[in-house]
Design brief:
Strand content: 25-35%
GO molecular function, one term: ATP binding
Main location: cytoplasm
CATH architecture: 2-Layer Sandwich
Shape: elongated
CATH topology: Mth169, Chain: A
Number of helices: 2
Subunit structure: Part of the FGAM synthase complex composed of 1 PurL, 1 PurQ and 2 PurS subunits.
Structural class: alpha+beta
Catalytic activity: N(2)-formyl-N(1)-(5-phospho-beta-D-ribosyl)glycinamide + L-glutamine + ATP + H2O = 2-formamido-N(1)-(5-O-phospho-beta-D-ribosyl)acetamidine + L-glutamate + ADP + phosphate + H(+)
Subcellular location: Cytoplasm
C-alpha cells in the first residue's frame, strides 16, 4: 500500500518560505500571485496490513508538527 501525506502550515501561521517565493515570483514578472503557502508531501510505501489509522499516528508523532501544521492523508 502507498500513502501520501500532505503537510501544510495552519492558517494564521507565518510562512516565510511562502513569502520568499511570492516575492521571487513578483521579481520574475509574475504579478498575479496574491499569496503563497508552501508545504511538503511525504510518500510512504507501507507493508501489507498497514492502515490509514497507523499513518495518522505517524503524522501525529513525527511527520507533522500538529501545533502549527495540518495534514491530509491520501491512500493510493
Amino acid at each position: 500500500m502507498k500513502a501520501r501525506v500532505h503537510v501544510m502550515l495552519k492558517d494564521g501561521v507565518l510562512d516565510p518560505q511562502g513569502a520568499a517565493v511570492k516575492h521571487a515570483l513578483g521579481a520574475l514578472g509574475f504579478d498575479g500571485v496574491d499569496g503563497v503557502r508552501q508545504g511538503k508531501v511525504i510518500e510512504l510505501d507501507l507493508a501489507d496490513g498497514a492502515t490509514e489509522v497507523q499513518v495518522g499516528e505517524m503524522c501525529e508523532k513525527l511527520l507533522a508538527n500538529t501545533v502549527i501544521e495540518s495534514y491530509r492523508i491520501e491512500v493510493l
